[in-house]
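User: I'm curious whether this sequence folds into something compact or stays loose and floppy. Could you predict its structure so I can see for myself?
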Amino acid sequence: MDKILKGYVFRLYPTDKQKELINKTIGCTRFIYNHFLDEKINDYKETGKSKSCYDQIKELPRLCKEYPWLSEVDSCSLRASLFNLEDAYKRFFNKQNEAPRFKNKDIGNSYKTNNIKSAYKDKSYESIKVDFKNKIITLPKLKEVKFRGYRNKTNFIGNIKSAVIRRQANKYYVSVLVEEPLILPEFIPRSIVGLDLGIKDIIITSYNEKIENSLSSLEVNKRIKGLQKRLSRCKSGSKNRYKIKLKLQRAYRKLKNIRKYLIHDVTNKLVKENDIIVMEDLNIKGMYQLNSIAKSLTNIPLAEIKRVLEYKCKWQNNKLLTINRFYPSSQTCSVCGYQNKKVKNLAIRSWECPKCGSLHDRDINASINIMFEGLKMYVNSL
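Assistant: Here's the prediction. I'll summarize afterward.
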């Protein structure tokens, strides 16, 4: 049976002592990351080689004796920090991101810990446990912490692999990674939809539906701009700067939650109502290079919509098909198939087919053509 990894996020309500320990652990993991990153950089300059994360893990006991406060926190989190550093270098060598940089106190306030399983006298023990009935999660070193979230859930179906504890705007969260069995329903193709992703309207479907982009007109955007202006006027290190920074973090958190809700609301509807979903293979990174539309794309999570659709279709055993990005979906008449190259300009939002006389809305016409092209792909694959 196939298995998948799912993440469940809970809001934590730790005590003052638990908050202090969480903050200590975040600081210790940051110290370990920066210490061994500096070591890697120096070793590479001197010898052209650097130690692997497994060699660096062997040095942790010596480092804990040198800095006794490292022994106060969860040892798994220190090792996980080194694996994160190794992963950052792998992504750099694969040209997926830039070279690893040193962490600071304002960015990446989180740490990861693994679920350690053991058995003694016919009893099994786990370092991470979730009690949905009493709303308590057990974490290494922290012991029992109250949480909130997933009111309708009673237990996890699979095995807990790890947990990431995060501090954001003086609020604490935990993301629990669970390995669950993937039970796929039978695939019966009954409906198909074509999606055209846009700027003014985030998604335009082949059923003449337009989902408007409401993220750009939110009040929280105005609040963020105002707080950024106030932050720029504050003196570095002052109490007022800290207070405004906290308000700014909360505003960004609110914007992130609104964006997340919109994405999941839209994608859930599409996956439930359609068995085959067709969309263009857009070059989203290239779109951000265009000055004409780059600013408009800041509040449109096109890449995230595509990513969420991919894994939700996999979970529901639906088909997500992507057509060639160079397919002229906006220029082709969805009635007669005539390609009108005169409407290549994005400013033309509606046009009349010179061959059959059909009137077309640019985006709806594109989504219908995308649907038909996806249908051809599916039929040819049978």
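Summary: The longest strand covers residues 3-13. The radius of gyration is 26 Å.
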